[in-house]
Specification:
The structure is a single chain. The protein is globular. Strands 11-12-10-13-14-9-15 form a seven-stranded parallel sheet, with helices on both faces. A six-stranded parallel sheet has the order 16-21-20-17-19-18, with helices on both faces. By secondary structure, it is of the alpha/beta class. The protein folds into four domains: 110 residues, no CATH class; 99 residues, Nucleic acid-binding proteins (OB fold (Dihydrolipoamide Acetyltransferase, E2P)); 189 residues, Rossmann fold (3-Layer(aba) Sandwich); 157 residues, P-loop containing nucleotide triphosphate hydrolases (Rossmann fold, 3-Layer(aba) Sandwich). It has 27 helices and 21 strands. It is 40% helix and 18% strand. The structure holds adenosine-5'-diphosphate (ADP) and magnesium ion. Magnesium ion (MG) binds next to helix 12.
């Protein structure tokens, strides 16, 4: 149960004075991504922090005001000049002056009654706004503020600016933030006193007040003490939640799973290649973990093409040998089916039954899978999110493998673990993740690394080509096709605006078909699953030679004899994505090429990305460079999945705080296992504040 002290923050925004249902919709769209499942709450407003400032401290004279600059000027009102009757297109003007000259205040569709009240002739007022010179005279169009001398002291000379959305003006956003601040209760302190002191951090309420009522740009910088305190709160909540998840997964609930090695050995014998040292080492590490009575929580990190699937299959075989079942969860349907295609034949040959479960299995077929899972006749289940569903019940789940882990959240991992009372968890990620980010998103996991590519791999030649040389490229592709090579051609997803909504892939497909005829296939996200499968299969089997695709093939697709990767509008892709895409080629024994087709002129960042791609194939270096070039959220693909990693913390500024938070979280749980001390109670409030309710439920007295 959420502590009552937080009720005001978890109330809908409409609880605040001045926020009606219409504004609430705009706020929900802005603060909750707006799919409508969750309404914006008062607390969301508090953590919607300013992105900048309006600085009205500049108080020049009228003639001294710089063109276009914000100015706050003390003036005397001279005369009103309403527009001629019936002509609303001419603005209402009010002329004012100071000792240096005259200023025209301009109001389009100005209301005379209101203006006469605001600006009575002969009185002194402060006006604040942008000074523009129009026909050689200074004017101010719609001053942002008009105040009397008495009220001047209350006028904010520095105003926070918030990210906005349709239906939400800056003034309204400011009012919302102020209203939310007034609803903030005084919460008990959860940060350790000595840490607060060491960093000079203010209390939560003070920090929020300072940021929403900044006095200087420094107050809203990520390095300000107020911001850091909030970032720490967010990081601590995250680390504490992860520590609780990890503890739950490890604690007691494990069981030693010791395989005989028999099935594994015959799989190894059947593989058309020799395992790399890194694969062998990882398999051993996994076995050692599985044999422990605690739960395994291990991450298998390996760049694209490093051979994670084989490791996963061997781990699954060990689980089956030990008398359990295994599940592999993939982020996309295509990938789940591809795993099925590669794994099932090998698995079957050693007597393991494999099934696949995605959203597509329906009715009787689905029921049959459920039944065979429950009675234990299915040994390995492959699938998508569908594996989480409540009616999926295993007979005896020993191992859950989560492929491309970064696409799934902590609670999904929990859901999978809960499918088997004793299941070990192996998460695999192809995106090489810098250490700080591993910590952030996954907590302290054990890590196995595939830091070695299969020896047979040849380097991939990467070139950048301007789009105006498309013709040359097409004839090059034609040559390659006549040599029997396979080519991926990736197009970004854009709607060609004025026309019917067609994807760029469809346009390219038609163009290439003109030249290459039957050799071209296509796969994109809007196709029906069966059509996608057929297109992938045709390409795999060589019925088509060129596969035009959107990024649906980004993750994990394996067609070993594809040798050319064309990425159209490469400048629109992020580094991590480019690297993932390039990793689709260079998997076989023939030399491969990656052609980055770009539209000139390139922006600075895009140019840097393409340069890095040409310089290196090292996934770790690319990930680090990506982190430098972009926000950390995007590396993990959070932007695509729409779950923002952080609201407040910024890795460029707060990586160090993350380490402190992790140590702090560990220390806290070692001293106060169930968070029952006074500080523990306060920490529970913190967890709720950052919506870590799932983690609180893991506490005994939760
Ligand atoms: P990823 O780590 O990106 O998931 P995959 O598991 O899909 O990589 O493997 C990529 C390709 O490399 C597959 O075609 C696979 O059969 C092959 N492969 C895996 N391990 C080896 C190896 N030790 N030697 C040669 N090829 C390998
Ligand atoms: Mg893979």
């Amino acid at each position: 149960m959420r502590p009552e002290i937080l009720n005001s923050l978890f109330a809908p925004v409409t609880n605040l004075a001045g926020i009606g249902p219409k504004l609430a919709v705009a706020l929900t769209r802005l603060l909750k991504g707006g799919d409508g499942t969750e309404a914006a709450k008062v607390g969301d407003l508090l953590f919607h922090l300013p992105s900048g400032l309006i600085d009205r401290r500049n108080q020049p004279t009228i003639t001294g005001a710089a063109e276009g600059a914000l100015a706050t000027i003390k003036v005397r009102v001279d005369r009103h000049q309403p527009p001629p009757r019936g002509n609303r297109r001419i603005p209402y003007r009010v002329y004012v002056h100071d000792e240096t000259g005259e200023l025209g205040l301009t109001f389009f569709r100005g209301q005379s009654s209101w203006l006469e009240k605001q600006l009575p002739v002969g009185e002194t007022r402060y006006v604040s706004g942008r000074v523009e010179w129009y026909n050689g005279r200074p004017t101010m169009v719609h001053p942002d503020h008009i105040v009397t001398e008495e009220n001047f002291a209350d006028m904010p000379l520095v105003e926070p600016v918030y990210p906005l959305t349709a239906g939400l003006s800056l003034k309204v956003a400011q009012k919302c933030a102020a209203a939310a601040l007034s609803a903030l209760p005084e919460l008990p302190e959860w940060i350790d006193a000595s840490l607060l002191e060491r960093h000079h951090w203010p209390r939560l309420s003070e920090a929020l007040n300072r940021i929403h009522r900044p006095r200087d740009i420094l107050d809203i910088s990520a390095d300000a003490i107020s911001w850091k305190r909030l970032a720490y709160d967010e990081l601590l909540a995250g680390q504490l939640a992860l520590a609780l998840v990890r503890r739950r997964m490890k604690k007691g609930a494990g069981k030693p799973w010791v395989g005989t090695g028999e099935k594994q050995q015959s799989i190894i014998d059947k593989l058309p290649f020799e395992l790399t040292q890194a694969q062998k080492r990882s398999v051993q590490e996994i076995h050692a973990d599985m044999a422990q009575p605690q739960r395994m929580l291990r991450m298998l990190q390996g760049d694209v093409g490093s051979g994670k699937t084989a490791v996963a299959l061997l781990a699954c075989a060990a689980a089956v040998e030990a008398g359990g079942q295994a599940a592999i969860m993939a982020p996309t349907e295509i990938l789940a089916r591809q795993h099925y295609a590669t794994i099932a034949p090998l698995a079957k040959s050693v007597g393991m039954k494999v099934a696949v479960l995605t959203g597509r299995e329906k009715g009787a077929a689905r029921k049959e899978i459920y039944a065979e899972l429950a009675d234990g006749s299915i040994d390995i289940l492959l699938g998508t999110h569908a594996l989480f569903q409540a009616d999926v019940v295993f007979h005896n789940l020993a191992l859950g493998v989560v492929d491309e882990q970064h696409r799934f959240g902590v609670h999904q991992r929990l859901a999978l673990a809960s499918k088997g009372g004793f299941a070990d968890i192996l998460v695999m990620t192809a995106t090489p993740i810098p250490r700080t980010l591993v910590l952030t998103f996954f907590g302290d996991m054990d890590v196995s690394k595939l830091d070695e590519k299969p020896a047979s791999r040849l380097p991939i030649q990467t070139n950048a080509i301007a789009l105006d040389r498309l013709d040359q490229l097409v004839s090059r592709v034609q040559d390659a096709v006549s040599r029997g090579e396979k080519i991926y051609w990736i197009c970004p997803l854009v709607e060609e605006s004025d026309e019917l909504p067609v994807t760029a892939a469809e346009v390219r497909y038609k163009a290439l078909e003109q030249v290459l005829g039957q050799n071209v296939g296509m796969v994109h996200g809007r196709m029906k699953p069966a059509e996608k499968d057929a297109a992938m299969l045709d390409f795999k089997e060589g019925k088509t030679r060129v596969l035009v695709a959107t990024t649906v093939i980004e993750v994990g697709v394996d067609v070993p004899d594809a040798t050319i990767m064309v990425i159209e509008h490469a400048e629109r892709f992020g580094l991590a994505q480019l690297h993932q895409l390039r990793g689709r080629v260079g998997r076989g024994d023939k030399p491969s090429t990656c052609l980055l087709l770009y539209k000139a002129p390139l922006g600075e960042v895009a140019e840097a990305r393409l340069r890095i791609m040409r310089e290196t194939e090292d996934g770790f270096r690319i990930a680090e460079e990506d982190l430098k070039l972009r926000g950390e959220g995007e590396i993990l693909g959070t932007r695509q999945s729409g779950t923002p990693g952080f609201q407040i913390a910024r890795m460029e500024h707060h990586a160090q705080l993350l380490e402190i938070a992790r140590d702090d979280a560990r220390l806290i749980l070692s001293q106060d296992e169930e968070l029952t001390s006074p500080r523990g109670e306060a920490l529970r409030i913190l967890l709720y504040l950052f919506s870590k309710d799932e983690a609180v439920r893991l506490l005994r007295a939760g």
